[in-house]
Write a structure and sequence with these properties.
Oligomer: single chain
CATH architecture of the largest domain: Orthogonal Bundle
Number of strands: 0
Strand content: under 5%
Number of helices: 9
CATH superfamily of the largest domain: Tetracycline Repressor, domain 2
Order of helices and strands: HHHHHHHHH
Helix content: over 70%
Distance between the termini: 79 Å
C-alpha cells in the first residue's frame, strides 16, 4: 500500500513553526535547527522542502500576501461604504506588518533587489496584480456611488499602492529610525481623505 503524501502538511507545519519563531526572535538569530526542532523534523527534513531560511521567509511573505488579497477580494464584494472597506483593509495590513515587522522588512528587501530570480519576480507580479484588482474594484464602487471624487480608478489604485511600497523601501534604508506604522497610517488617511467626495452645504 503506497504511503500517503504528507508534503503539503509538512510544508504547512514548517511555515507555521517558522512564523511563530520569527515573531519573537530576530531573523538573524534564527537557525534552521531551531525550526527543525520545533517542527519535530530533522534538519535534512526541513531542507527537503525549503532550500534555505530565505526560501522559508519568502514562502511566508507569499502566504501573508495571499491572506491579505483574499480579505481584500471579500471586502470588494461587501455592501458597505467604500471608505470603511479601505480603512478596514489598511488596518489589517498595518497589523500584520507590525506583528512580523522583521519579516516584512526582509520582504521589502526582496522587492528592492536589482536582480530577483524569475520565480520571485513572477510571485511579486502576481501579488501586485491581486492587490491592484481588489483595491481598484472598491475605488470604482466608491466613485459609482458618489462617495469618491471622479478620478481614474487605475491611477488612484496605483497611487495607494505606490505610497505603501515607497514607505516600505524607505524603511529598508532606515529601519531603526523610521516610524513605519505611523507613516503608513498618515499616508492612508491623506490618500483616503483625497478620494472622499466632500459636498458643500447649500
Amino acid at each position: 500500500m503506497p504511503k500517503p503524501d504528507v508534503s503539503e502538511q509538512r510544508k504547512s507545519k514548517i511555515l507555521a513553526v517558522a512564523r511563530e519563531i520569527f515573531s519573537r526572535k530576530p531573523l538573524k538569530d534564527v537557525k534552521i535547527q531551531d525550526i527543525a526542532r520545533k517542527a519535530r523534523l530533522s534538519v535534512g527534513g526541513v531542507y527537503w522542502y525549503f532550500k534555505s531560511k530565505d526560501e522559508i521567509i519568502h514562502a511566508l511573505l507569499m502566504q501573508n500576501a495571499e491572506v491579505n488579497i483574499a480579505a481584500l477580494k471579500t471586502l470588494s464584494e461587501v455592501d458597505a461604504p467604500a471608505i470603511m472597506r479601505l480603512q478596514k483593509f489598511f488596518e489589517q495590513v498595518l497589523a500584520s506588518t507590525e506583528d512580523l515587522s522583521e519579516l516584512y522588512l526582509t520582504g521589502a528587501k526582496y522587492q528592492s533587489m536589482s536582480s530577483p530570480t524569475p520565480e520571485t519576480r513572477a510571485a511579486m507580479q502576481r501579488i501586485a496584480a491581486g492587490y491592484h484588482s481588489g483595491l481598484e474594484a472598491i475605488i470604482e464602487q466608491g466613485i459609482a456611488r458618489g462617495e469618491f471624487v471622479q478620478v481614474n480608478p487605475q491611477d488612484a489604485t496605483t497611487a495607494l499602492l505606490g505610497a505603501y511600497e515607497g514607505l516600505m523601501l524607505l524603511w529598508v534604508m532606515s529601519p531603526d529610525t523610521m516610524r513605519l506604522k505611523e507613516s503608513m497610517q498618515v499616508a492612508a488617511q491623506l490618500l483616503m481623505a483625497g478620494l472622499s467626495a466632500i459636498k458643500e452645504k447649500k
